[in-house]
Amino acid sequence: MSNSFEALGLSSVLLQTLEELGYETPTPIQSSAIPRLLNGEDIIGQAKTGTGKTAAFTLPMLERHDNSPIYGLILTPTRELAIQVAEAVHRYGAKLGVRVLPIYGGQPYSRQIRRLEKGVHVVVGTPGRILDLMRQNALDLSTVRYLVLDEADEMLRMSFIDDVEVILAATDAHKRQTAIFSATMPEPIKRLAKKYMHNPSVVAITSDEMTVENIEQRYYIVREADKVPALCRLLEVEDLQNTVIFTRTKAGSAELAETLVARGYRAEAIHGDLPQVERERILRRFRNRNITILVATDVVARGVDIPEVSHVINFDIPQLPIEYVHRIGRTGRAGRAGTAILLISPKQRRNLRMIEQFTNKRIQRGKLPTREEVLRARNLQFRQEMLAYLSQVEHLEDDGLLEELIALGYSAETVALAAMQALRLHEDQRPLEEIRDVKEREHDTVVRMPRKGGRKRSARYERDEDGSEAGMVSLKVDVGRREDVRPADVVYGIANHGDIPGRVLGAIRILNYETFVDVPQEYAEAVLNSGRSTRIKGKQIQVQLADKRSPSRGNSRQNESQHGHKKTRKKKSQKRRLLT
Ligand code: AMP
Question: Most-buried pick from 147, 177, 399, 545 (CB within 10 A)?
Fold first, then answer.
């Protein structure tokens, strides 16, 4: 596997863009997919969000750019992903002047049609709206030379696969190179691949690169300015054997190592600027326990053989979730216990959630040690040092000072206490700065990960005391069995029209006249606001907050019979409840 973008065969304009974006090395999926795609091959990429898959399929597409109309088409299951991918295409293709248009439901047709008429090179969109535009003769896909299905399994789950097939059939099979990205490969996707691809090779990220099972994972939210003091508190109370601390930049690793050394830790930085012999020397010292803390960057960590450690500390959150998995894989090997600590700033909560989603595991929020806890830890450590010292010294020699002090009237005990205090004074020179609290938010305590064994989206979330899913808001939609609504229609409607990825929707309960759907709190407002433009089964729907005693919380009969009364509820007071 190649370790540089250059070696993958990308041209200089894109290389320069990647450098400016700070991408130093390709991720595994990029190393395997990019050369094949550049070579014109069809591929099936088995990789989740967070592996760098977007760049893996976008960069080779951009190498095809020759200013011709709609040469690239990327299909995504949700509006949110369409926007995200279109942004990535724009970002990577800016220097080439690539014009990209995201197309999704919920936006006026006229705007999209105008943009299409002006001319675009790449279209990224959800199948439903793309099909609509094709049917209106506003979108001609016969020019497509590079087609990507992103998150194909999600499209299948959301019942878009028939639409996808119509779109595939509308492109020219002889012209077209095709890539399918999917985390799993259910039968219908395999069938699609067989029918529409030319000898695709499978590029997969093996699952052993993703296990984090034996590792105790914690995160701490601290302001950027408080990171060093926070790290130092942790170093004082954690039972550290040997530790790797990861920083984002080389300069950062050198600076942090210096700070730690100044505070009395045996630490050294290891980064790409150091010559190989120097790196080996540092690693030897780490293995021999001459140093106990290695401050490393990802690049060097990947290239060298770092031994098993008791703790991995992510001083800077990694850009990619997969990088996080690589980092913390330095601990908890071979069934041993390991601890992984992650420091994040309040703004990085989103990145944290990406990691949780990627590893399918909840990371616990830790509380930073208080001053008292640090002082207690220092006491304990001093006690151990004293005991170790006392057990080691064979005989204690007195050069006459003790006798002199006793002659002055001090007891041996007082002298011993004073000597210990003098020693302690030296130790307590270590600063113990104030750290400002970052308030807990709901996300910090709410579990939004599927339970063990639960299906990916099937809403197997933790439940609140009142029976609703933790962190979810129950919304009511005024369509139901009467309109022949199926769960997939609800997902389609809300995901496609509201600004919300389908996979985050929770329990869906369809009654005769209405449907209840649990939506994560942070999306609830967007869904409520998008209500008027949202259609389910062709019907314009009304979305409102469900009553606390709604059927999605258990009491369906009562609610059915209450149908009609609830319309009198005041929207304003509901909204207030949502926002508090
Ligand atoms: P994706 O898996 O495509 O959703 O990418 C996840 C994140 O990783 C995005 O924010 C990308 O900007 C970032 N990313 C992708 N490739 C690299 C790379 N080689 N080095 C650093 N960051 C990357």
Answer: 147
Pocket of ligand 1 (CB under 6 A): 23, 26-27, 30, 49-55, 319-320
- Dist. CA 323 → ligand 1 center (Å): 10
Token reading at 483? 């309109």
| Ligand 1 atom with the shortest distance to the CA of 91 | 12
Q: Which residue has the higher pLDDT, 227 or 498?
A: 227
- Is residue 403 located within the same domain as residue 513? no
**For residue 412, what are the domain limits?**
372-421
**Encoding tokens for residue 242?**
């040997």
> What per-residue confidence (pLDDT) applies to 367?
92
Q: Which numbered atom of ligand 1 lies nearest the CA of 49?
A: 2
How many whole angstroms from its chain centre is CA 200?
29
3 state DSSP class of 473: strand
pLDDT at site 333: 67
Q: For residue range 204-247, what is the model confidence (pLDDT) as tens digits?
A: 876 445 556 778 999 999 999 999 999 999 999 988 889 999 99
Q: Which residues, at least 6 apart from 436, have a Cβ–Cβ distance to it below 8 Å?
A: 223, 226
- Give the ligand 1 atom nearest the CA of 26: 19
- pTM for the whole structure: 0.56
Q: Is residue 430 part of a domain?
A: no
Helices 28-38, 53-62: inter-axial angle, 10-degree rounding: 20
- Based on the domain organization, do 44 and 10 belong to the same domain? yes
Confidence band of 137 (pLDDT split at 50, 70, 90): very high
